[in-house]
Amino acid sequence: MNLDTIVFFVSAIVAVFGATMMIAQRNPVASVLYFIVSLVAQAVLYIQLGSVFMGAVLVIVYAGAILVLFLFVIMLLNLRGQENLTDRSPSVSRFTKYLISALLFVEMWFVVKSGFFPDAGQVGVMVEAPGTFGSVEEIAMVLFTRYLYPFELTSILILAAIVGAVVMAKRERSGGAPSTPSKGQEPTNTVDEAGR
Amino acid sequence: MVPITVYLIVAAVLFGIGTVGVLISRNIIIMFMSIELMLNAANLALIAFSRALQVPDGHAFVFLVLTVAAAEAAVGLAIVITLYRNRETINIDRFNLMKW
């Protein structure tokens, strides 16, 4: 058992542990923090697979930007993890849900184990990667040549997401919102009115 | 070197946990994070395949998936804010009507 294997098993166990704790938590803030633990462990797995750049991007973009956005929204909603989430019985029983998930996992297990992939004998064994594998240069080379069109399309996607997020989160001008306004929304509204 | 099937099993386990989270969670934010976890599991499988086949294409896919996940998070959280403003709850069982 060499160092490589030990690093793999430790980070895999931490990733699965963080994910399990994430769905088991009641408090959304603790859930986000456990998700960050899982993400960092997954970044270690990426780096071990030779893609150092993608591991860094995972930590910076996911843990640094997306999950901070989650935390920000939780703060904005003023949740304290004490909402009554069990006032109605679910339409599908909990056992059925676990059963469906277990069936899906067993299916994936069979696909992984069946050697379904073409040339499974070669794929199964990891060969030593060349030194440039996963470098920024190599990723940029393939991203800006073969996948240039999808890459440019993502800019349109992000533009649509920005416009959509603004339209969704903007408060309606008159009526429509019977609930009491939360305090976190006020600055956005004043900026909006100043802009008109 | 750890064989690729072990990485794929880890990805499958993470995906399964994400599925369980989406199905059993009542909290819309935890449900949303479970979807992100499922995307991450797919990313791990893509990176493992990319390494095993010695081609960099998987990295480009992961890059695009990360972009889509970021856009999805922005729009989804905006929807969560709107829902909370109208209903004062994040319980997913309360959002069973398309129109009030």
Gross geometry of chain A: globular
Mean pLDDT of chain B: 87
Average pLDDT of chain A, rounded to a whole number, is 79
Count of alpha/pi helices of chain A: 8
**Fraction of residues in helix of chain A:** 55-70%
The count of DSSP E runs of length 2 or more, i.e. the number of strands of chain B, is 0
Question: In a few lines, what is going on in this structure?
Answer:
The complex is a heterodimer of chains A (196) and B (100). Chain A has helices spanning 3-24, 28-48, 52-77, 94-113, 120-124, 136-143, 148-169, 186-195. Chain A has 196 residues and is mostly helical.
Detailed description of the structure:
- The complex is a heterodimer of chains A (about 200) and B (about 100).
- Chain A has about 200 residues and is mainly α.
- Chain A has helices at about 5-25, 30-50, 50-75, 95-115, 120-125, 135-145, 150-170, 185-195.
- The model of chain A is unreliable at about 180-195 (pLDDT under 50).
- Chain B contains 3 helices and no strands.
- The model of chain B has no long low-confidence stretch (mean pLDDT about 85).
- Chain B is about 80% helix and about 0% strand.
- In chain B, α2 (about 30-55) runs antiparallel to α3 (about 55-85).
- Chain B has helices at about 5-25, 30-55, 55-85.
- By secondary structure, chain B is mainly α.
- The chains are: A mainly alpha (about 200), B mainly alpha (about 100).
- At the A-B interface, α1, α2, α3, α4 and α6 of A face α1, α2 and α3 of B.
